């Protein structure tokens, strides 16, 4: 089966700074990829290029047969297939949880109001906060907000879900509730590309772990191999640092 | 202990709402000797001013008089003048026998505005639809009333319009036109497209940099020189356009401030959901940006409302102009305080209503605020 996301020799520079350096990647349908690496290694840029939030300079990115580019009509088509969850949730503060989940389907997918509401409600149930449907983001805890954000992304009926450090802005006791939802999502067979430092999550659900540094993918391996034998000194260093922090 | 903490942590709790400290009515007025002294002094002053006003307006007020001279006997307020001239002040040069028409038009406008500003009427689809029909119908009715020439109403050309109706027309049409234009200018000034950005910036800087008086003068006196001689345009309409362009420049900058306060993440979220630029602006960005700039927008609305009085320099007789004209007749010559006080109270009342509404709006919209 052809991969749902393909990146070929993708470069991205901000002025003199190279943030993505000849990154190539293939993601099969149903595959779950965890991207990790020190801060500034290009992880967030990598996922942001996949739905065109960031323009890449060179190379090709193809999502479900559509090449990501500035050509008219391409980005809307890509964004219908790829949904994203952000570190800072980025919920719309003037809309209720439910409205946050219906605005995209109604406007971008042209789904009717009643249907959008019904499926948004079902998604809020799935992320276990149906009782918060009519609250505004400011009235929710961080963990609840991020679960609404996941429901909002799922409401777009995507083929691929991108997560950009979904738990980094959360208090420790709220990380678990978000990760639980993500594990459940993984069980449904959703294609996921997750930037995270949660190595427990990576071990549990990832098919492959990408270790990045200096804008390059230094290692691309199944979790068992990655944790048992980090291929580079940087990865070893990173892992010991992260795992020490987790243990503490 | 640890288990208890973990259980407590796993319960989803709403974030705490920070309550403001509540003070009693007289807090800070008498808490120290100097404060008490200042308070007493100010209360004494207020009472003195109140007594003086009462004495001037009521005790020495003159209700029966034919001329300014007769009024001047007591040195009090000349109610007789207001009783004689209030219709001139309110309606300006509009034909006396037809003044019920602008009066009715103002009532209609007030009802329409009052209904549109009621949040309850926006909640339901049916009443929204009714509002959507009521607007064009009422505006057509107002236009028919003022212009006449239909349904047996004698025609009244717009140069005879004046007083409060003229002020309200200039302000409401000018401000609404300016508001729409201002949103486009603010978005344009933040556009990625250099030509659009340059045009919007140039427009804003030009109209903000020219005095309103000069613009009005340009619109009324110089405009005919710039267009072919067979072009005619109503002078009221020209003044109206000048107002709209001038205040659009100010509002655009206020709105731009609101746009700048929107975090980048909001744009990223809109993009990732596949919303188009206009969808994102209409449903996500502008609703947030506009509510943060309500105070400065209301500020500009109020300034615009009062600045309509500048049309007097292009010989239109608005509320203030009519007050000015009301003492022109020989028998009321020399009266100043009464007409100006009268219109000042009208301006004040209308501005107070605007402020009160905006306070209510802020409170209501503040509900889902960060």
Break the fold down into its secondary structure elements and pairings:
The complex is a heterodimer of chains A (about 250) and B (about 375).
Chain A: E1 5-14, E2 17-27, E3 32-36, H1 43-50, E4 58-63, E5 66-67, H2 74-81, E6 82-85, H3 97-108, H4 113-126, H5 142-154, E7 160-164, H6 172-187, E8 191-195, H7 199-205, E9 208-213, E10 216-221, H8 223-228, H9 233-247
Parallel strand pairs in A: 3-8, 3-9, 6-7, 7-8
Antiparallel strand pairs in A: 1-2, 1-4, 4-5, 9-10
Chain B: H1 2-10, H2 33-59, H3 68-71, H4 79-91, H5 100-117, H6 120-123, H7 125-147, H8 163-189, H9 194-209, H10 212-226, H11 235-260, H12 264-272, H13 277-292, H14 294-307, E1 317-318, H15 319-326, H16 337-365
Helix pairs in contact in B: 4-8, 4-15, 4-16, 5-7, 8-9, 8-11, 8-14, 8-15, 9-11, 10-11, 11-13, 11-14, 12-13, 14-16, 15-16
Question: In short, what is this structure?
Answer:
Chain A is of the alpha/beta class and 248 residues long.
Give an overview in words.
The complex is a heterodimer of chains A (248) and B (370). Chain A starts with a strand and ends with a helix. With 248 residues, chain A is of the alpha/beta class. In chain A, strand 4 (58-63) and strand 5 form a beta hairpin. In chain A, 40% of the residues lie in helices and 24% in strands. Chain A has helices at residues 43-50, 74-81, 97-108, 113-126, 142-154, 172-187, 199-205, 223-228, 233-247; strands at residues 5-14, 17-27, 32-36, 58-63, 66-67, 82-85, 160-164, 191-195, 208-213, 216-221. In chain A, the strands form two sheets. Chain A has a six-stranded mixed β-sheet with strand order 6-7-8-3-9-10, with helices on both faces. In chain A, helix 3 (97-108) crosses helix 4 (113-126), helix 3 packs parallel to helix 5 (142-154) and helix 5 packs parallel to helix 6 (172-187). The radius of gyration of chain A is 18 Å and the shape is globular. Chain B is globular, with a radius of gyration of 26 Å. Helices cover 70% and strands 1% of the residues of chain B. Chain B is built from 16 helices and one strand. Among the domains of chain B are: 96-156; 162-223 and 236-325 and 334-370, MetI-like (MetI-like fold, Orthogonal Bundle), CATH 1.10.3720.10. Chain B is mainly alpha-helical and 370 residues long. The chains are: A alpha/beta (248), B mainly alpha (370).
């Amino acid at each position: 089966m052809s991969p749902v996301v393909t990146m070929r020799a993708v470069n991205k520079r901000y002025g003199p700074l190279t943030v993505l350096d000849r990154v190539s990647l293939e993601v099969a349908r149903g595959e779950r990829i965890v991207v990790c690496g020190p801060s500034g290694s290009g992880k967030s840029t990598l996922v942001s290029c996949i739905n065109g939030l960031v323009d890449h300079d060179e190379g090709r990115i193809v999502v479900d047969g559509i090449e990501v580019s500035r050509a008219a009509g391409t980005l809307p088509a890509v964004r219908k297939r790829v949904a994203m969850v952000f570190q800072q949730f980025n919920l719309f503060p003037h809309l209720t949880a439910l409205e946050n989940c219906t605005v995209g389907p109604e406007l971008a997918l042209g789904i009717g109001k009643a249907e959008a509401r019904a499926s948004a409600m079902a998604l809020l149930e799935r992320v276990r906060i149906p009782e918060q449907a009519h609250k505004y983001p400011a009235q929710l805890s961080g963990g609840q907000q991020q679960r609404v954000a996941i429901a909002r992304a799922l409401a777009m009926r995507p083929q691929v879900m991108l997560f950009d450090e979904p738990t980094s802005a959360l208090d420790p006791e709220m990380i678990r509730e978000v990760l639980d939802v993500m594990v459940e999502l993984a069980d449904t067979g959703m294609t996921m590309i997750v930037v995270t430092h949660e190595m427990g999550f990576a071990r549990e659900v990832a098919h492959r772990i990408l270790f990045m540094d200096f804008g390059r993918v230094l290692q691309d391996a199944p979790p068992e191999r990655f944790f048992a034998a980090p291929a580079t000194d940087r990865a070893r260093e990173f892992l010991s640092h992260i795992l020490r922090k987790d243990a503490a | 202990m640890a288990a208890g903490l973990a259980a407590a942590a796993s319960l989803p709790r709403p974030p705490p709402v920070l309550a403001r400290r509540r003070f009693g009515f007289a807090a800070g007025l008498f808490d120290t000797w100097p404060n008490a002294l200042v308070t007493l002094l100010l209360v004494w002053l207020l009472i003195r001013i109140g007594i003086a006003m009462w004495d001037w307006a009521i005790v020495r007020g003159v209700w029966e008089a034919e001329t300014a001279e007769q009024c001047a006997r007591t040195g009090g307020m000349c109610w007789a003048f207001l009783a004689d001239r209030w219709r001139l002040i309110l309606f300006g040069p509009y034909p006396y026998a037809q003044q019920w028409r602008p009066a009715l038009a103002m009532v209609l406008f007030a009802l329409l505005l009052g209904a549109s500003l009621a949040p309850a009427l926006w909640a339901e689809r049916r009443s929204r639809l009714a509002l959507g029909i009521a607007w064009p119908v009422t505006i057509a009715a107002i236009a028919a009333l003022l212009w006449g020439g239909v349904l047996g109403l004698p025609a009244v050309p717009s140069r005879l319009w004046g007083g409060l109706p003229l002020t309200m027309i200039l302000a409401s049409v000018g401000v609404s036109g300016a508001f729409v234009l201002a949103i486009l200018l603010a978005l344009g000034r933040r556009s990625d497209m250099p030509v659009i950005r340059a045009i919007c910036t140039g427009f804003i800087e030009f109209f903000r940099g020219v005095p309103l008086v000069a613009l009005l003068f340009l619109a009324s006196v110089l405009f005919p020189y710039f267009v072919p001689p067979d072009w005619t345009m109503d002078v009221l309409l020209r003044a109206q356009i000048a107002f709209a362009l001038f205040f659009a420049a100010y509002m655009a900058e206020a709105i731009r401030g609101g746009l700048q306060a929107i975090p980048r993440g909001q744009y990223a979220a809109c993009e990732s959901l596949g919303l188009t630029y206009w969808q994102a602006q209409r449903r996500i960005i502008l609703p947030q940006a506009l509510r943060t700039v309500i105070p400065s927008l209301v500020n500009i609305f109020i300034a615009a409302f009062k600045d309509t009085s500048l049309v007097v320099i292009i010989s239109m007789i608005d509320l203030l102009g009519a007050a000015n004209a009301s003492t022109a007749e020989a028998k009321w010559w020399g009266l100043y305080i009464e007409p100006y006080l009268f219109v000042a109270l009208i301006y004040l009342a209308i501005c107070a209503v605007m402020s009160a509404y905006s306070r209510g709006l802020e409170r209501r919209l503040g509900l889902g605020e960060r």
